Structures are given as structure tokens and as C-alpha cells.
Amino acid sequence: MALMTAMRWRVLCLVSLAANLGLAVGWWLSLRHARPPGPVETVLSDTNASPQIRTNVVFRRQFFSWSELESPDYAKYIANLRDIACPEQTIRDIIIADVNALYARRRAAEIITPEQQWWRAEPDPVVQATAQAKLRELDAERRALLTSLLGPAWEIGDQLSLPRPSRPGVTLDGPVLGLLSAEVKQTVQEITSQSQDRLQAYWETRQQEGRPLDPADLAKFRQQTREELARVLTPPQLEEFLLRFSESAAHLREELAHLQYFNATPEEFRALFRARDAVDLQLALLGEATDPATMLRRTELEQQRDQAMQLALGKTRFEEFQKLQDPTYREAFAEAQQAGRPEAADTLHEISLATAAEQQHIRDDATLTDMQKAIELKRLELEQLRANAEALGQALPPEPPPPPPRLRAHTFHERETLVELSLRYDVSISAIMAANPDLDFNKLQPGVTIKIPEPARR
Description:
The protein is elongated. It starts with a helix and ends in a 5-residue tail after the last strand. The strands form two sheets. A two-stranded antiparallel sheet has the order 1-2. Strands 3-4 form a two-stranded antiparallel sheet. A hairpin with an 8-residue loop joins strand 1 and strand 2. It is mostly helical. Helix 7 runs antiparallel to helix 8. The N terminus is likely disordered. It has 18 helices and four strands. Among the domains are: 97 residues, no CATH class; 55 residues, no CATH class; 47 residues, Roll (Membrane-bound Lytic Murein Transglycosylase D, Chain A).
């Protein structure tokens, strides 16, 4: 029974298919015989003339591919656009947009900007000047090309050059980020914009609640943005982005700028960033909690970071990095560098520490008067100058000349003698005579003024 049913359905299907094919053939033949002649245009020369038939009218294709219009030759590109009756305003906007995009890619790939040197705490003035010169050169080239293509008035009413009410994004240029496709760049800009929106909304909410920003929340936002970027960027591209725009890299640049004299190379900065970045994010996620477990975890992470930094820099450079954290050492290093003896920085630092300890000892000495303390501190200052000069291989500073003696005026009276004056003022006769080289003590007259020096200290 089942076999007979299946055979019946097969026969019905074949009959239906044959009928459909027959209908299709008949429809095609009817169209072929009933098709009207091609389009014609009737032209009347006068009222008595018979109609003339023109059969050479060309109808433009209404369906085309954009690839048929585009050409690497801008002149041909413009001719193709005009060939399809594209309006001149639209042609101008298309060409300006295309040329601007071309030179935007060239700027991103060919110009080394200070921002691309993410390892520098301060921009390199040479790189800055070179970038500005190259930027001016490319812009002049772009303008010349547009002038040759569109005429000297191409900038009049340039809609594409008008400012747009859009938020400025990150600058994706350089040998890594500058080569990203337009689609990836757009996605990265959208991710950064969304990240800013999240932070702004969070900040407004906390402000309305009257609460400060939580570092742990901010770290979570940064982590979310990184995860989104990692979906569209390769690991090298993501690292380049983070080296330039992340908060961790910004903090590292600030720290190196504070150290002043460390001058990290690009390789050292990258190594430091890799050693610190993940740990810094974990530290930020801990927030400001002060419970014992969190404090212990924070200490462990800080030790882990220091060990990673030492491995990244090597022992010698890491020790230099640590010493430059001390402002006293930075002063000693600056003095040694200025003198052309950077190797003397450690010695100058030791002298400075010893001097500071002795100065504090003098200030704390209750047995000394204020005058005696001032004298001792001045003496200590001179000793430090001499020690620094020796460490730097410089000539010792000359001994300061003794201060001139303080004198008092005495009016000579009749029958006074030098012996009496010496005893009265506790000053030797020779000191009195030395203080008055213009007087003849064998012919002193009453009323003469004699200069009496202060007695010598014992």
C-alpha cells in the first residue's frame, strides 16, 4: 500500500513539472513576438514635412558599480563622475574628501610626532620642529593637488573643512596605529568615546550623591575599555595604544619627569610599563580598603612590582632609578653632571647627608648660643664646599678674608698714654697703633680721635 502511494505522488510531481515548463516556454515566445521596437524620437522640421525617425538615441545605464567610476588617476576619476552627470558640487566634495583622506593617511604614516615618543617625559624639540615642517609640507602638497584638480576656488564653501560638532578622539597615527584600517580606527574611536561617557556618567552620579570617586570603580572602567579594545586590536597594536593613552603610561611618564635625570630609553620605558602595568591595575582594583588582608595584598603587589622593575632594568639602572627618588640625590646628581663628573654623584650625596646630620646636631646643641650656632653652621658650610670641590676635582675655593675689626672712637685727653688706653680697652698697644696708621703717637694733641679696635676673643 505504501509503495503504491509513493508511486502515485511521483507521477503527480512529474505531470506538474511538465505543465510548468510548458507555461514558461509559451510566455517567453509571446514576449518575443510582442516586444515593441526600440525607443524613437520624432523631429518635425515644418508643418508640411513628414515625420523623421531618429534611431540613434542612447539611453544611459541606470545601474552601475562604484568601482567602475573610481580610478587612481584623479583626472579620470573626475571625468567618470561627470560622465554620469554627477553635479559639480558633489564632485568637488567627493574629490576633497578623497584627497583629504589620502593625506590624512600620509600624515598618520609619515610624520613622527612627539606624542608617538611615549617614552619621553618632555617632548623632543627637534622632533616637534621636524613634525611641524613635514605637516606644512604635506598640507601645501594637498592644497596644490586640489587646486590643480578643482581650480583655485576649491576652498570656497568647502563643506568638508567646516568644524563639526563632534568630540575630538584619540590621534591614531604613527607606524603602528597609523596603519589601522578606517573601520578599525572608527571602532577604536567609538570605544574611547563610550569609555569617556561611562566615566562622565559615573562622575556625575557620585557628585549628586556627594561621594568621592572610588579608585576601584575607575580601575574597573579602565579594565572594561581594555577588554573592548583587545577585541579589535592585535596585542602589539593594543600595547602601542596603552603606551600612548593609558593612565598607567601617563603616571610612569610623570614619575620619570619628576626624577629628571633618569632619561629612560624607549626599550626601558616599554620594559617598565610591562613590569608595572598589570600590577598597577591590580593595586587600583584594591581601592582604598585598609583591612589587614587588603593591606597585606597591597604590600605583596608592591614587592612584586619592584622585583619586576629590577628584572626589566637590570641591577645598575634600577639602583639609579631608586636613588633618584631622593631629592637630595637629585641635587647631587645635577651638580655632578654640571661639573662634567657624573660619577661623583654618590660622593656628593654622602657629603650632603653628613653635612645635614652635623647641621642638625649643631641646631640641637643647647650649650651653644645663637651666635655660636651661626658661626658653626657657617664653618660647616665652608667645609662642605671644600669637600665638594675635592670630589669634583676642582680647585679649592679661596679662604674668605677676615672681616675688618670693629672700631670705636676715643677722644684723646691730656696726660693719657697708650698704656692706659690698652689697659682700659683690653687691647694691645700694637693693635691700637695698627688701627691708626695716620697718627703720630709721639705728638698726640688733646682732642684727637683715636680708633680703638675690639678686644680679641679668648
